[in-house]
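sanity check this record:
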Amino acid sequence: MTLDEARKILGLGPDQDPRPHLEEFQQARERIAEMVRTAPNETLAMRYQQGLLEFDRALASVREYLEAIGLLPRKEEIVIADSHTEASRPIKTTTQEKIDSENEVSPPLPARKSRVPSLIAWMMILLTAAIGSGWLYLKVQDDKRLMLQAELAHLENTGAVYIENRRWPEAIQVFQQIESLSPNSEIAAVGRRSIEAGMAEEQSQFVGYWTGQAQASFEAGLLDDAETAARQVIAKFPKEPQALEILGKISVSRAAENRQIAIAQARAKFDQRLWNEAIQMAEAILRDNPKEEAASTLISDAKAALIKEESDRTRANELLAQARERDQGQFDQQALDWLREAAALAPSNTEITAMLEKMASYSRTLRVPSDFPTPAEAISHARDNDRIVIGPGEWLGPLVINNSIEIQGAGPTKTIIECPADSGSALSLGPEAKGARIAGITLRHASFDPSGERFSAALVRGGNVTFVDCRFSDASGHGLAVIESGHVIVNRCRFSDNGWNGIAAIGTGSLLEARESECLGNFEHGIESWDGAAVILSNNRCEGNSRNGIHADNGTASATIENNRLLDNREFGLVLGSAAAGRITGNTARGNLLGGMVIRSKSAAVPVAGNEITRNGGPGLILERGLPAAAYNENSLSSNKGKSILADADLNATVETQEISSAPQPTDAAPAPIDPP
């Protein structure tokens, strides 16, 4: 085979040197060797090593062929050509030998046995080499595929671990790497779906837990805890609708709570008779909440109080002038009574206060603690018409008065008389206390007695007593009890947080006159009368009591109830159980839970007209069976949740037959007992 034929078989041009191709084969061989050295595991290293051996065998076959056809020198010739030692040089001969050599006729050379395989054999070798090279290429590609599969399996396992541990950013990164190695990979698609499902589940669990906590705290009124829980959700999921809804409710509730606080503060100013300040605070509430009815009502009440205060000042000045005309420098009961009434109408009028002090000084004055160390000692030394002045402090009762004296404190917030609940009333007045007067004092119990027989903070038994600017609070029983035909006048007093009624009038001949006073938050009724007692109640406020504002069950006695405000009591504003005479006019019954007013048939003789009955939680006016509805049409009824007038009501029937409420209705049963004798 000629060199040209070899070039043609190898696909080389006539001038191309085959040796550079051997260099390419050698470089390819080195790359395979490098794969053996850097294989990631032993299995792949062995596979690459076998491929390297096969490649070396193929390369040796090609080199041998090229040597045979003369395209490459034989290895032994390369060694001889490269040797420069003396032993390799040609040996010198003699001249004769040279001549003989030149003249010698060379014998014919035998045919040289060719080492070149036939063309078919060569093509087989070349084909084998090509197949081997292709197989090696496929082997390398297969190994690459196996390596890719191994890496994908490793990444898939890593991603699954991240998903299981809810490490979403790391999981997302892993499956993005899988996607970059194998575009449109099902593994990546499944991983993304798993991440999305896991994140959705985690969000659902997280949101469900914290919104549940927020809702529970909100319903319990723990607004701070509710907001903290809801904001746990918003911090991770800013647009989560349930948490946003709860935060909205919290905001509304807080606004309502702030309004209630502001209204309570304005009401406190009202209670302190600081009418203008109360109006200003209520107007501020209305600027932000124009529909706030409590603020509107407060403004209306305060303006009415201002008008009345002006009328009271005018009347007080008239009484002061009358007392001055009678002043003869000696004790005058009528003048003192006028001045006391004037002081009650205008307590800030310094002229009236000074004149009252002057005329009171005409009688003997006993002072505590300067003259006597305790009120009890001063009372024991007092005679009719004496005046006892008690300084600021908490003084120990019980005290008992049985003569016509006056006790003057330094003011209800400064002079306090109290005693243990089981030792009696803080102050008791007996039948001989005719014309006694108590002013500027708080009467209360220092403890609570839950027994069935309880003492009141103050007890009047048959005497004739006036209380002015006093407070009756925290009694185990009633704030004030009037029994045994006692006659009590209450002016500008407050009865609050007592265990039974604020005021109770009991028994035939007993009379309660309460004016300009407040009965707030008592555990029974604000004012109650029964068993023949009579009442005259005007311009009082009965609010927030656990039962009714006023409950009058007077039998044959009269009930005159005018211009009272009966607000937000837990049952009704007014229950008129029985009365033979009197009138119910000008009262406001508003916001009471079960209804406005209840009129029973035993009080049919008492006219009920001109009352405003509005926004109650049940019917406005409830008339017992037998009372004609037309006789009660002169009342203003509006915005009550039940019927305006519920007529022909069977108040003795079971609760289920009533439209009034699901709570028990008023009955003729005797109320709770009062102080023991």
